[in-house]
Design a protein that fits this description.
Blueprint: E1 12-16, H1 32-45, E2 49-52, E3 56-57, E4 69-73, H2 80-92, E5 96-101, H3 111-118, E6 131-132, E7 155-159, E8 165-170, H4 185-201, E9 205-208, H5 246-258, E10 265-268, H6 275-279, E11 289-290, H7 293-296, H8 302-318, E12 324-326, H9 335-338, H10 342-358, E13 362-366, H11 387-391, H12 437-440, H13 447-460, E14 470-471, E15 478-483, E16 487-492, E17 498-501, E18 505-509, E19 514-517, E20 520-523, E21 527-532
Parallel strand pairs: 1-2, 1-13, 2-5, 5-9, 9-10, 10-11, 12-13
Antiparallel strand pairs: 3-4, 6-8, 7-8, 14-15, 15-16, 16-21, 17-20, 18-21, 19-20
């Protein structure tokens, strides 16, 4: 496969949550062979690359983001040979492959942490993680007041085999995910080697999990009383997120990636609200992309969306970086539901998709959004596996609702996710057969055909992808922009029909439009359209 110059600047990248994509062997969990068998469908959809969530050896305390071995495939997902076969098949179809790397923390089952638990305080084995003595009498209080993203304290106290309490260790997430200490050179060297291991196998890049969290304020100060410990809220300054030291790590990683042929990409999951702070991760000697979470979390509001779009383009443009756009992923409520659910939520989601695919830069799609899948909000309590459920005292249901396995065929569950009669790891709603790929493929007006048409145009038209844009005059509540040469995109975010000044051919629309005729176009409520001319 011939390299494409800076391919990531305008790529459409499809996120695969490995456990929920396709089950080839009937054990109820998606796997690498299942992905390989379904690759022709993604080629037909028109994506340029796929991003795989972790498939490494893991106890799955947090869906694979608790890694016990960074250089091997968990047997439930396949083998290294299966990975190589998937990578080769993707490249044969012209699809690049990005994989997750999880550098903030390991699994408590990782050999390093097992060594640390049995070692003495102050030992070399413990220095790879953040172990500290407790506060108060006999060190019975945690070293500080930091809270876990999943609820409860961010510190757990070790106990010796005889029950004697010991030091505490930091875990910004689950207790089975101890945080590395990135002041330790051995941690740096280990991840340099992990990156090279997968780059040598031919991967096209890495998505860096919790990219803003690896470096902590060395003083480990308390956070302000009442401050939120929330990955999805970057509005609060926290001593363990977005510390300046992370940028030294990424300069080192960038040099490693640049030493390989074929233009390998590094993508940051950095939950940083300020667009200018996000752009610091994208300076020329650092990372290539960062997820645009400010756009993902923006409300259904024309003025707010326009402000986020303008701010993102300006901040990234200042460092010469491309901008990414994303509406859903494996950590947030699917946008059909986030935009209101039901018919209205789907109508808004389809319009939002055409806006996103028409903006300058690169886009990320989350598996199933091309089918218009909603969040599953009524999973049985005993089916929930997200650690947030238990750590919140069963008050927060967590992220399982956006991770339900995909429907591929109509009929009965599991709708082609796995062999007939198999039981998926999360139950699939009975009505999802009608949303399956087989039910929508070739059906005019279906959400799958909308995505396929728009992604095809995005590849075909020089105006789309990387480049610039200009806002056009439009009624209040309408976003109207021009991409050169010769494409205009209009989105009516209001609850009523509007008329906009327009001529030319309708290329694709998220709903029925009238015209254009006599220099105007009728745009129904919550509808988007692409026009030529």
């Amino acid at each position: 496969m011939e390299p494409q110059s800076r391919w990531w600047r305008e790529a459409a990248i499809y996120q695969i949550y490995v456990r929920s994509f396709a089950d080839s062997n009937g054990d109820g969990e998606g796997d690498l062979t299942g992905i390989r068998e379904r690759l022709p469908h993604l080629a037909e959809l028109g994506v340029d690359a796929i991003w795989l969530t972790p498939f490494y050896v893991s106890p799955l305390a947090d869906g694979g983001y608790d890694v016990a071995d960074y250089r091997d495939v968990d047997p439930r997902f396949g083998t290294l040979e299966d990975f190589d076969a998937l990578l080769g098949a993707a490249h044969d179809l012209g699809i690049r492959l990005i994989i997750d790397v999880v550098p903030n923390h390991s699994s408590s089952a990782h050999r390093w942490f097992r060594e640390a638990v049995t070692a003495e305080p102050g030992s070399a084995a413990r220095s790879r993680y953040l172990f500290r003595d407790g506060r108060g009498p006999d060190g019975e209080e945690p070293p500080n007041n930091w809270k876990s993203i999943f609820g409860g304290p961010a510190w757990t106290r070790l106990k010796r085999p005889d029950g004697t309490p010991e030091q505490w260790y930091l875990h910004l997430f689950d207790p089975e995910q101890p945080d590395f200490d990135w002041t330790n050179q051995e941690v740096h060297d280990e991840f340099d080697d992990v990156l090279r291991f997968w780059l040598d196998r031919g991967v096209d890049g890495f998505r860096i999990d919790v990219a803003h969290g690896m470096v902590k304020d060395p003083a480990l100060p308390d956070i302000a009383e009442g401050a939120k410990a929330d990955l999805l809220d970057g509005s609060t300054t926290l001593p363990y997120f977005d510390q300046d030291g992370v940028h030294d790590i990424y300069r080192r990683w960038s040099a490693i990636a640049d030493s390989y042929p074929g233009e390998r990409a590094l993508v940051a999951e950095a939950w940083v609200e300020d667009a200018d702070r996000v752009a610091r991760y994208l300076r020329p000697d650092e990372l290539h992309q960062a997820f645009n979470f400010e756009y993902l979390t923006a409300p259904w509001d024309a003025a707010r969306l326009r402000a986020v779009i303008d701010g993102s383009l300006a901040a990234n443009g200042a460092v010469g970086a491309t901008t990414t756009w994303v509406l859903s992923n494996h950590d947030v409520t699917r946008h059909v539901t986030r935009f209101g659910g039901g018919e209205q939520g789907l109508r808004r989601a389809r319009a939002a998709t055409l806006l996103m695919l028409g903006l300058p830069g690169s886009v990320y799609l989350y598996q199933g959004e091309e089918l218009g899948l909603p969040e599953v909000t009524d999973l049985p309590d005993d089916a929930l596996q997200d650690p947030t459920w238990e750590r919140s005292g069963r008050t927060e249901r967590g992220r399982d609702g956006c991770r339900v396995p995909l429907p591929w065929e109509d009929g009965s569950a599991p709708f082609g996710f796995g062999p007939e009669g198999s039981t998926p790891w999360l139950p699939v709603p009975e009505g999802w057969g009608a949303l399956s790929r087989a039910s929508q493929r070739g059906v005019e007006g279906s959400t799958l055909e909308l995505y396929t048409r728009a992604l095809g145009l995005r590849r075909e038209l020089d105006a789309l992808g990387d480049g610039s844009m200009t806002w056009l005059d439009a009624p209040e509540g309408v976003l109207y922009l021009k991409r050169e040469p010769g494409v205009r995109i209009a989105v009516n975010l209001t609850g009523a029909p509007v008329e906009i000044a327009a001529t030319g051919e309708v290329l694709v629309s998220s709903g029925p439009v009238t015209g254009p005729a006599d220099g105007s176009l009728g745009l129904p409520a919550e509808t988007a359209v692409w026009l030529r001319g």
